[in-house]
Amino acid sequence: MRLLLVEDTFDMAEAIVIRLERSGIACDLARTLAQARETLNVQRYDVIVLDINLPDGLGTELLKEMRARGDRTPVLVLTAEFSVDDRVSTLNSGADDYLVKPFDQRELEARIRALFRREQGDKAEEIVLGNLTFNPSARVVRLDDSPINLTRREFSLFELLVRNRGRTVSKERLFEGIFSFQDTDVSMNALELYIARLRKKLGGSSIRIETQRGLGYKLEVDA
Questions:
Q1: 156 closest CA partner among 123, 112, 124, 189
Q2: Which CATH number is 43's domain given?
Q3: For burial by CB atoms within 10 Å, which of 38, 124, 191, 200 has the most?
Q4: Using an 8 Å Cβ cutoff, are 195 and 217 in contact?
Q5: Are residues 7 and 34 in the same domain?
Q6: Residue 98 shares a structural domain with residue 61
Q7: Range of 95's domain?
Q8: CA gyration radius for the chain?
Q9: What total number of domains does the chain contain?
Q10: Is 221 within 8 Å of 130 (Cβ atoms)?
Q11: Do 39 and 78 fall within a single domain?
Q12: Which pLDDT does position 152 carry in this prediction?
């Protein structure tokens, strides 16, 4: 999953980025509306976390712009406002969820993952793929009854493939999903390395990660 955080408070932004990246979420940071607009012009995201009060305007301005041009990316709004009217106004502007400051980082992560699951269409907590089970909430993959130890990026890569199983996912989309703009020293070759690691760790399962020459990768489940 790749996420854009639009937040100008340094300490809060840093804490959120550290927490999410440790959980396997590639996180880009914009501190102003202008930076967020520039970033959205060149990159797509699975979820956006958007603060309301920013140095150059209100986050709801960006939200309305996105919805007006048909961008349905799930948006979770961070707000210090407590009134019901303010919350209703935020949701009416196109937000999918909101969280009132101060908040627990665990709740923020849980809500982000819930938005991602809802957008991807998998409502089940546990997805059964032949003799392999995948639980995105618990971040657990099991082969029969034995857990498979995946690193955070391996898990994120596998989750993208699972969400799109049976369909070819481009290398660019997979790369975007596990690396952020901060990973400037990472090349596309790193993706092939992670695919190779996944194939090795999933050996003996009903899962096949097929290479689609010139297109990307596709996850198939053997009957």
A1: 112
A2: 3.40.50.2300
A3: 191
A4: yes
A5: yes
A6: yes
A7: 2-120
A8: 18
A9: 2
A10: yes
A11: yes
A12: 86
Q: Does the pLDDT value for residue 188 go beyond 90?
A: no
Q: Are residues 149 and 112 in the same domain?
A: no
216-221 and 2-6 as β-strands: parallel, antiparallel, unpaired?
A: unpaired
One-character DSSP codes across the chain: -EEEEE---HHHHHHHHHHHHHTT-EEEEESSHHHHHHHHHH---SEEEEESEETTEEHHHHHHHHHHTT----EEEEE----HHHHHHHHHTT-SEEEESS--HHHHHHHHHHHHHHHHT---SSEEETTEEEETTTTEEEETTEE----HHHHHHHHHHHHTTTSEEEHHHHHHHH--TT-TT--THHHHHHHHHHHHHTTTSSEEEEEETTTEEEEEE--
pLDDT digits (tens, 9 = 90+) for 5-56: 999 999 999 999 999 988 889 999 999 999 999 999 989 899 999 999 999 9
* Top-confidence residue, 100 or 81: 100
**Do 110 and 137 have their domain in common?**
no
Residues 153 and 106 reside in one and the same domain: no
Among 105, 120, 135, the domain boundary falls at 120
pTM over 0.85: no
Among 103, 120, 137, give the residue marking a domain's end: 120
Report long-range pairs for 133-139 (Cβ below 8 Å, ≥24 apart): 134/158, 134/159, 134/162, 137/110, 137/113, 139/23, 139/24
Mean pLDDT, range 126-140, rounded to an integer: 87
In this structure, what CATH number is given to the domain that contains residue 133?
1.10.10.10
